[in-house]
Amino acid sequence: MARTSVPDVLDALKDVTYPADRDRLVTAAREAGASGGVVTALRGIPAEEYPSREAVARSVRADAQPGRRRTERARHGGKPGLSQHLREEPRTPIQEEFGR
Q1: How many of the other CB atoms lie within 10 Å of CB of 22?
Q2: Which of 64, 36, 62 is nearest to 26 (CA)?
Q3: Which residues are within 8 A (CB) of 40 and not within 5 positions of it... i.e. 6 or more apart?
Q4: CB 22 within 8 A of CB 42
Q5: Whether 42 contacts 10, CB under 8 Å
Q6: Helix (H), strand (E), coil (C) string for 21-90
Q7: Could you name the domain of life of the organism this protein comes from (predicted)?
Q8: Among 26, 48, 62, 86, which has the minimal tally of Cβ within 10 Å of its Cβ?
Q9: How far is CA 52 from CA 46, 62, 67, in A?
């Protein structure tokens, strides 16, 4: 999957008139020739009306630090390709108390 950043997303939306909903933003990005990563990032935002570019920037989940997910996964004991239900999770205080 292509990496994208918030400036890439906002650059693809430079001609959008606000307020605009998610579908309008995705359409505008496609019309502007945005990369697949930008379109995917826009499709991942909540389906609501955005009053400004700043609101879109706050909502879009762009990969600001490419190695961050790998670091977080390693910190929590996960391995690439390992299902979430197979990862070790810290026990809750109730589980600690009852020895489960």
Answers
A1: 18
A2: 36
A3: 1, 4
A4: yes
A5: no
A6: EHHHHHHHHHHCCCCHHHHHHHHCCCCCEECCHHHHHHHCCCCCCCCHHHHHHHHCCCCCCCCHHHCCCC
A7: Bacteria
A8: 86
A9: 14, 17, 30
* Phi, psi angle pair for 83, to nearest 5°: -65, 150
Q: Are 33 and 17 in contact (CB under 8 A)?
A: no
For 34, the token pair is 């945005």
Range 63-99 burial, b when 16+ CB lie within 10 A, else e = beeeeeeeeeeeeeebeeeeeeeeeeeeeeeeeeeee
Residue of 4, 70, 72 lying closest to 35 (CA atoms): 4
Judge if pTM exceeds 0.85. no
Q: Would you give per-residue pLDDT tens digits along the chain (100 residues)?
A: 456 888 999 999 999 999 999 999 999 999 999 988 899 999 999 999 999 999 999 898 865 444 555 556 555 555 566 566 666 677 788 888 887 6
